[in-house]
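<amino_acid_chain>
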Amino acid sequence: KIISRSSPLAVFQCQEITEQFPELDFQIMTIASFGDKEKNKTLWESFPQDFFTRELDEAILKGEADIAIHSAKDIPVPLPEGLSIIALTKSLDPTDAFVSVNKTKLKDLPAGARIGTSSPMRKKELEAARPDLEIVPIRGTVPERLQLLKEGEIAGLIVATAALKRLKLENEIAEILDFATHPLQGRLAIVAKSERKDLKALFSRIDTQFRRFRPRRIDEATREQYREFSLTISDFIWPVFLVEGTGIKEELPSLPGVHHYTVDRLLEDLKKYDDHCLRTIMLLGVPKAKGVDQS
């Protein structure tokens, strides 16, 4: 049994997961979260971390559902006691998209045009890119936000590209923005009771969490100085591999969501992530050559 928010996007996200397991039978139950009901509350202000997840997590703890499927960036840190993230998918698309009347690009909008966004981070990016625009808070499902555009309430809005893709609304995109986005944007998180090792094993084939990091092929004395540990989005550690050069930010094929960075690009992104609750950044050096022990 899957518990999901009742929005069209949330249901599509559930289907995205279930389609990868055609051999299983799923039952999807929907519920309106606290955040779905309180649409008068702007996300520009302080709001509970479990704004969009509370009712879903309670359903799992009560045994009413086996798993909940969330947008990963909505996950509270830490999760309620007794719950764990059993799988984190690769991002469908980490970028932000600009949607506007007649597909006018952001730079071409007239001064004073009203732009809608629910995100404080997007608001900051907009203010930096176009300080002459009027930025207004908007809430609601993606179709509801697009309706505001069609009714002339706003001249444009910013939406996660992944959301538009999942809803088959890519044709609404005017342009992809070069904005800093949440590190988990476009990813889905599957949450279950921590004790459900069977579910963790079941969904392991779509799990991309940076799970294990330990030295290998080294002497026992050195090995004793290390311990094996897990890195998940609950820990909110951002592992970064530093490389020489300039202007480089490249995703590692073997570790989705983890990048090679040069120092200049890392510093550039760090300035944009001030709004995130990233408690730790782990800098991992890439050696120029393997040692004699091939490590």
User: Anything to note?
Assistant: The mean pLDDT is 81. The CA atoms of residues 93 and 162 lie 5 Å apart. The first strand starts at residue 2 and ends at 5.
